[in-house]
Design brief:
alpha/beta; disordered N terminus; 6-stranded mixed beta sheet; binds magnesium ion; binds guanosine-5'-triphosphate
Length: 220
């Protein structure tokens, strides 16, 4: 017989399986820019100053309400180190959104943004939406990339731009919510014009604009 706590767990499980849409989102960028910290801040509201470099790829799930819809976010945190590139780019396919991150105190990480953008174009669906994020904006004293350069590059690449801090919890929630809104907007456009996926890269189930409900078999 199920105990009270088992049945509560069952209810929680069931509620987590109910959603209108599921979006797959990837966080990419050089090692140490703060991708893992950004995800932990958003999903668990936690931050640690210790640096434990991500090995390969990891993910967290968070369900939010947006525009009267229950949206399940499957957020993939990729390793920035070059040696994991083959593994991480394999996950680009089927992603509806990317957070491309650099560190405002690290010029190299900013100079790599163009390359990361090329990786997105090479490995992901054409309609994937991208937000450029300059993280660690709490470290004003150590800043080497001024805000205007971030904004300019984002404009040039056609991305929206935020400066944020996983440490201070600045613009973290806002970044994810904006990305979700941009994906939703794109999805409505596609309902009008369904032929917008590129040749060879058909959207997977997560890319479908069809509402998804009660995915008992979901891999996550
Ligand atoms: P890889 O997993 O190697 O790709 O790195 P990452 O991008 O996941 O970096 P991670 O989140 O592990 O953070 C690297 C270091 O930066 C850690 O010591 C964090 O505590 C620190 N850090 C992350 N975000 C911030 C921030 O917003 N402000 C400050 N001051 N430090 C941060
Ligand atoms: Mg990491």
């Amino acid at each position: 017989m199920a105990s009270v706590s088992d049945s509560r767990f069952g209810q929680k499980e069931a509620s987590e399986q109910n959603f209108d849409f599921m979006f797959k989102i990837l966080i990419i960028g050089n090692s140490s820019v703060g991708k893992t910290s950004f995800l932990f801040r958003y999903a668990d509201d936690s931050f640690t100053p210790a640096f434990v470099s991500t090995v390969g790829i990891d993910f967290k799930v968070k369900t939010i309400y947006r525009n009267d819809k229950r949206i399940k976010l499957q957020i993939w945190d990729t390793a920035g180190q070059e040696r994991y590139r083959t593994i991480t780019t394999a996950y680009y396919r089927g992603a509806m959104g990317f957070i491309l991150m650099y560190d405002i105190t690290n010029e190299d990480s900013f100079n790599s943004v163009q390359d990361w953008s090329t990786q997105i174009k090479t490995y992901s669906w054409d309609n994937a939406q991208v937000l450029l994020v300059g993280n660690k904006c709490d470290m004003e004293q150590e800043r080497v990339v001024i805000s205007d350069r971030g904004k300019q590059l984002a404009d040039q690449l056609g991305f929206e731009f935020f400066e944020a801090s996983a440490k201070d919890n600045t613009n973290v929630k806002q970044t994810f919510e904006r990305l979700v809104d941009v994906i939703c907007d794109k999805m409505s456009d596609n309902l009008v014009s369904p032929d917008s996926s590129p040749s060879g890269l058909k959207p997977g189930p997560e890319l479908s604009a069809q509402p998804q409900r009660s995915h008992k078999d979901c891999a996550c």
